[in-house]
Specification:
With about 350 residues, the protein is α/β, with parallel strands linked by helices. It has two domains: about 190 residues, 3-Layer(aba) Sandwich (Rossmann fold); about 150 residues, Glycogen Phosphorylase B (Rossmann fold, 3-Layer(aba) Sandwich), CATH 3.40.50.2000. The protein has 16 helices and 13 strands. The model has no long low-confidence stretch (mean pLDDT about 95). It binds uridine-diphosphate-N-acetylglucosamine. The site of uridine-diphosphate-N-acetylglucosamine has 19 residues, from helix 1, helix 5 and helix 11.
Length: about 350
């Protein structure tokens, strides 16, 4: 029995790390393949170091490219890996191009696929992640959901309920394991701000940053908000590229910083007055940290972060963003309740299901 875990981009690492550890604990043989979709030290290696992920057994060095070329190159390289290693199960997580590419290769070679974070739907097919999610789910054999609505979406799409396992959230396993250490390191000191007296921003969705009009309008309103409370902005490479290309100038109250390592970012999030984001992971993490989160999108695949958490969708409308920030600043914001099974044990549940599946009981 050989399990082949596949990672590729930043959000995969914190989801896969606790699963790798849980597989080690039950001594199931495994290998780790990194596609190289993300390759900068602070987008990749730093997460291996901080999360105690073993170095990949196989590194495919795919790098950046158009969607079709990146996906195709991962597929060609991963097909060779599967032919050489003959895994019995391929485990993928989330919704990035590496997720779909690896799942598709495995399914075509009749290797069963397990999908961590299955069943999420934004119902916005303009998002590449939505395409990746839907397709990966439909070719997976074990589907691990993070919130109950995922089970409903999968049932509505005709996926057999026997394949679907509601296990909770692996990203939360990682968060709970590291949050104390992250806060102890006081990463805000290095940024010259005080706990509770700054906001934190992440922005990297193509729909927000690749359209010059939308991107500059967003930065205008956020620049104004930063006059009241400084905004720390770890800049994703995609976003940095456009800031440079379009020669965008921002006020000094807007602190542009490098993409942060896991612990520093978690510590910054934990003590932020509020967070502005278009990321999926950050919506989940702020829910766990009970920090107000404004999502700069009109849809979310993570409704539990709204029903149980601190998240609110504000889109990119300046008036909506301003209104929400005013509410937060006057301490008029919803507190979070822990979503079901976001308890730090999702990866153990996943490995239990895998063990039952190995023994033919699932
Ligand atoms: C990808 C995922 C997205 C996820 C995000 C997290 C897809 C379709 N998108 O988006 O779901 O939220 O990762 O970061 O898989 N770049 C670097 N260094 C790197 C990686 C990328 O400079 O290590 C630059 C390159 O110019 C590249 C651009 O960032 O073209 C975008 O990278 P890519 O992996 O294509 O998509 P992301 O926007 O990172």
């Amino acid at each position: 029995m050989l399990v082949c875990n596949v990672v590729g981009a930043r959000p995969n690492f914190m989801k896969m790390a606790p699963v790798v550890r849980a597989l080690q604990n039950v001594q199931l043989p495994q290998i780790l393949v990194h596609t190289g979709q993300h390759y900068d030290t602070n987008m990749s290696q730093v997460f291996f170091d901080e999360l105690g992920l073993p170095q990949p057994d196989i590194y495919l060095e795919i790098g950046s490219d158009t969607h079709a070329r990146q996906t195709a190159r991962i597929m060609a390289a991963f097909e060779e890996v599967c032919q050489q290693q003959q895994p019995d199960l391929v485990v993928v997580s989330g919704d990035v191009n590496s997720t779909l590419a690896a799942a598709l290769v495995a399914a075509k070679l009749h290797i069963p696929v397990a999908h961590i974070e299955a069943g999420l739907r934004s119902f916005d097919r303009a998002m590449p992640e939505e395409i990746n999610r839907v397709l990966t789910d439909h070719i997976s054999d074990l589907l691990f959901t993070t919130e109950e609505i995922g089970n409903h979406h999968l049932a509505n799409e005709g996926i057999e309920p026997e394949k679907v396992h509601f296990v909770g959230n692996c990203m939360v396993d990682t968060l709970l394991q590291h949050v104390h250490k992250a806060v102890e390191q006081s990463p805000w000191t290095q940024q010259g701000v005080l706990p509770g007296e700054y906001a934190l921003l992440t922005l990297h969705r193509p729909s927000n940053v690749d359209d010059r009009g939308i991107f500059t309008a967003l930065l205008d309103i956020l620049g104004q908000l930063s006059q009241d409370i400084p905004i720390l902005f770890p800049v994703h490479p995609r976003t940095q590229h456009n800031i440079t290309e379009w020669q965008i100038q921002l006020p000094a109250t807007f602190h542009l910083i490098e993409p942060q390592p896991y612990l520093a970012f978690l510590g910054l999030m934990a003590k932020a007055r509020y967070v502005l984001t278009d990321s999926g992971g950050v919506q989940q993490e702020t829910t766990m940290l009970n920090v107000p989160c404004l999502t700069l999108r009109t849809t979310t695949e993570l409704p539990v972060t709204i029903t149980h958490g601190t998240n609110k969708l504000v889109g990119t409308d300046p008036a909506e963003i301003e209104k929400a920030v005013l509410k937060i600043m006057s301490a008029d914001w919803q507190l979070s309740r822990q979503p079901p099974l976001w308890d730090g044990h999702a990866s153990q549940r996943i490995v239990q299901v895998i063990q039952q599946w190995v023994s033919g009981r699932v």
